[in-house]
Amino acid sequence: MGHFRGRNSIVQLTSTPYPLTEGNRCKRNKHPAFFLPSSLTPNQNTYRTVEYFRMADIKNWSSLGEPDAEFLEVAKSIGGAPDLGVFPTIQAMRDFLEQSKAATQDLYGPISGVSQRDHEVEMRDGKKISCIGGLTNEELLCKLLVSKLGMTAVNVDYRLGPEHKFPTAHNDCLDATKWAASNASSLGADPSKGFIIGGTSAGGNITATVSHQWRDEKQSPPLTGSHLMIPAVVAAGHVPEEFAADYKSYGELPNAAILSHKAMDLFADNYCPVEKRSDPIFSPLLWPTGHGGLPPQYFQICGGDPLRDEGLIYERLLREKEGTATKVDVYPGQPHGFWSVFPQMKASQKFIGDSVKGVEWLLQQKKK
Fold first, then answer.
1. Are 228 and 307 in contact (CB under 8 A)?
2. Active site residue 175
């Protein structure tokens, strides 16, 4: 779950079905050349995001949950908003999602030989808890980081629940990040120019955890950034009292599209026992040694997501209490993981373009 720079390095976790056109060409390990979209950043007026949300008043967070008009229109066209909670078991959900999966790959690099790239490690999307997902979830972002920013991307295929219970997925990703750091030169990357980890949903949770572990263990090279997309950082029922008044999205959005409470319970019950959900590895907001000394953080948060407020609370804590450099993009009225379910929406195109720009911002912090 990381990215390298020096080119840069990055470990990343998410993919969105995106119409691939003959644009920026890349190569992928053991597979033929593929093509990337020529244009990634739509007109800024096509979709409104709340950028650098730090300037907004806390009282406005709830208004971010009002459904976006474009999302409602698209959902209506397919007979209603989807909800992963309709599946009776994780296996039934996997069987359904498998129908749309493509071939997997694990290492991406540019066609033209450029030595010593930045590096990124990417933790793939687990949709809140590590039970579903795969390498293809983060494939698009890995390709874009390689093509647009000249990075080496390592895409981590960690083990899932219910077959592998907590903390297997977290341990796998820490080990993968250590492997990426130790093998950076053989991957053509130079972590000293940028070493970023990132992930979506459960991958965002693991990203936050590994960031703390890396700091506490004084691992080398140090991480230079974290990319947290719709992260889960604290289990429901374990929110510290000091944040309780601001933690509203979970209670306000029990029937949210894509990730309802029912879906969240299904994932949690299949990965982590109730009695272990206050473990800081599962709930990194509760990290016992605090949050100081973490690298710059880039957040992407959905307004219609039950996880919204824990992400915003965590960002504010890092920025205000610890002085950590942060950047935030919020997508009002959009549900958890909307860009992978409805890639045709303007908001989805904006999200992907923002992801690349956000990682570029993380790289720029290394130069300061």
1. no
2. no
pLDDT at 135 over 70: no
- pLDDT confidence of residue 80: 82
For 262-273, the DSSP string reads HHHHHHHHHHS-
Band (pLDDT 50/70/90 cuts) for residue 59 is: low
Locate 196 and state its tokens. 């970023």
In DSSP notation, 333-345 reads TPPTTHHHH-TTS
Task: Considering the candidates 170, 336, 348, 355, report the single residue annotated as catalytic.
Answer: 336
The span from the CA of 46 to the CA of 331, in Å, is 13
38: annotated active-site residue: no
Give residue for tokens 């795969």.
134
**pTM above threshold 0.85:** no
Q: Which bin fits 66, alpha (ψ -120 to 50), beta or left (φ > 0)? A: beta
Q: Pick the catalytic residue from 305, 309, 329, 354.
A: 305
User: By C-alpha distance, which of 13, 155, 78 is closest to 345?
Assistant: 78
336 is catalytic: yes
Nearest Cα to 126, choosing from 92, 156, 88, 171?
156
Taking all residues of the chain, what is their mean pLDDT, rounded to a whole number? 79
pLDDT at 46: 41
- Domains identified in the chain and CATH numbers: 3-366 (3.40.50.1820)
Element (H, E) at 71: helix 69-77
Q: Which of 147, 201, 211, 348 is catalytic?
A: 201
